[in-house]
Amino acid sequence: MTFPFPPGTDEDTPFFVISVAAQLSGLHAQTLRSYDRMGLVSPGRTPGGGRRYSMRDIVLLREVQRLSQEEGVNLAGIKRIIELENEVGALRAKVSELTEQLAQALAAAEHAAASVHRSLRRDLVPVRQETALVVWKPNRKR
């Protein structure tokens, strides 16, 4: 489902009230409250304590419903699946971050090595090359 987000918002911006979130997810508002208490979904809150759901929350609610109804997974299992998927996402982000840091470190090391190599070349003294003939006479055994 594509949804045109207002300027300055994205799929993580909480702005759906519970009745709209219930309609969009195909669940009852009381089910959404129950899922919130269980920690399956964590909607944003208004200063008065009202729930505000983001588009990401709606997608998550639909996935909870699918896992429950089509796959037969109980709510505790669904909660564990969500936790593991969040952990995998965090680990992927960390791997991406570390890969970028490694690439930067390698580039810096290559630059430093090239700089050292250039400085060493300036320190070399040119040597005059001459051609010489050396005659070797081995000692004869007596």
Automatic annotation (TrEMBL):
Annotated Pfam families: MerR_1
Gene3D superfamilies hit by this protein: 1.10.1660.10
Coiled-coil ranges from the UniProt annotation: 81-108
Domain of life: Bacteria
NCBIfam families: HeatShock_HspR
Keywords recorded for this protein, A-Z: Coiled coil, DNA-binding
Name this protein carries in UniProt: Helix-turn-helix transcriptional regulator
Annotated ranges, domain HTH merR-type: 15-84
